[in-house]
Design a protein that fits this description.
With about 375 residues, this protein is of the alpha/beta class. About 45% of the residues lie in helices and about 15% in strands. The chain contains 16 helices and 14 strands.
Length: about 375
């Protein structure tokens, strides 16, 4: 089996989701036996598309697609002098995802089986609450709605509006109380029935982050995620020593080499690679395996498109050190359906093992009929 064509697809108008139009890049790797693999990345598809065709396609055409690790290193060498923390690594991520999908199709097996098999019978999920930010105005009602559907963990970011008031450089007692009010109300109403993860999107400086973390301790959130930017991991170490709450870091670190420093400084208590950014399934799995040597769990970041969603479930099915996997209810229940059709929903807070062969998803016929579809091919 040889790679004969690299195809990219994107929608000029994007897909309307909770925050407005989102643009994904889909990559299809075609072979001489008629099989193809599907991968995905975001959020700048024109830039990622250019990298795929100009830098990576020449390394792939004519090659055996089953040599996934060797192809990954070849692609990494191709972009190593142009920088590998942006569109270059996202492009590799999409191709790697497609190669795993192709390998699963060729073997007629789900991808998690090729990764080493399932480590569990079902996969616990938490809901990232893109429900028009209703956690700011109706946090108890939102938590109740999730519990009704069996989901017992949620992620909110009520401190973000406060950060915008000061640029993240200062916080008053009143702002602190106001920002933590949704967390307080959810924990008061539901106690341990609902785990609440706190997301901060890297908006805070170190003194503010320490103050916020200590104020959160009363409510025992599931974790504190990305309180600081990712450019100074020594600062994260200082934050970790200032609170007993676990820190989760970070979908914005790329490759095992950036995660190495994080592991060595011992700041993280959960690691969160994003398959569509970090270097694909291959790299996300290696990072999770590295985390295991430090006795740390992994919780894959899954807030992108439907192919990433499928890949995240396959990785989660396999990892022996999985903590939990992210999902967005309005994504899998509504916004993804126009792209890949109906997707399985969690039952009692758990996803079933994902289907195969491969990743078990494909672009719906309607995608190919859209007038704003931009399609590009490089043929060997």
């Amino acid at each position: 089996m040889k790679i004969t064509k690299i195809e990219t697809l994107r929608l000029a108008q994007g897909v309307t989701v909770h925050a407005g139009p989102i643009q994904w890049l889909w990559v299809r790797i075609h072979t001489d036996n008629g099989l193809f693999g599907l991968g995905e990345t975001y959020p700048h598809p024109a830039a990622e598309e250019a990298v795929v065709h100009s830098s990576l396609a020449p390394r792939l055409l004519g090659q055996d697609p089953s040599r996934i690790d060797a192809l990954w290193m070849s692609m990494f060498e191709a972009i190593s002098y142009s920088g590998w923390a942006g569109a270059e690594m996202r492009a590799i991520s999409a191709i790697d995802m497609a190669l795993w999908d192709l390998a699963g199709k060729a073997a007629n097996q789900p991808v998690y089986q090729l990764l080493g098999g399932a480590s569990r019978d079902r996969i616990r999920t938490y809901n990232t609450c893109y429900d028009h930010l209703s956690f700011l105005t109706e946090p108890v009602e939102l938590a109740a709605s999730l519990l009704e559907s069996g989901i017992s963990a949620m992620k909110i970011w009520p401190m973000d509006p406060i950060a915008k008031e000061s640029g993240g450089h200062s916080i008053t007692a009143e702002q602190l109380r106001r920002g933590l009010e949704p967390l307080r109300l959810i924990k008061k109403e539901f106690g341990d029935r609902m785990d609440v993860a706190m997301e901060f999107h890297g908006f805070w400086n170190l003194p503010c982050a320490i103050r916020i973390a200590r104020a959160c301790e009363e409510y025992e959130p599931m974790w504190l995620e990305e309180m600081l930017p990712q450019d100074n991991l020594a600062a994260y170490r200082e934050l970790a020593t200032a609170t007993h709450l676990p820190l989760t870091i970070s979908e914005r670190l790329m490759t095992r080499w950036q995660y190495r420093e994080l592991f060595e400084n011992r700041a993280a208590r959960t690691v969160m690679p994003d398959i569509s950014w970090v270097g694909g399934l291959s790299e996300a799995r290696k990072i999770a395996n590295m985390a295991e040597t430090w006795y740390l769990p992994a919780a894959p970041h899954n807030c992108g498109g439907p192919v990433l969603h499928a890949a995240s479930l396959h990785l989660a099915a396999n990892l022996t050190n999985l903590q939990i996997v992210e999902s967005v209810r309005r994504h899998y229940a509504d916004e993804y359906t126009a792209i890949v059709g109906e997707l399985a929903r969690p039952r009692e807070g758990y996803f079933d093992l994902p289907p195969g062969p491969g990743l078990g998803v494909d672009l719906a016929p309607g995608v190919f009929k859209r007038p704003d579809l931009i399609r590009r091919e490089t043929i060997g």
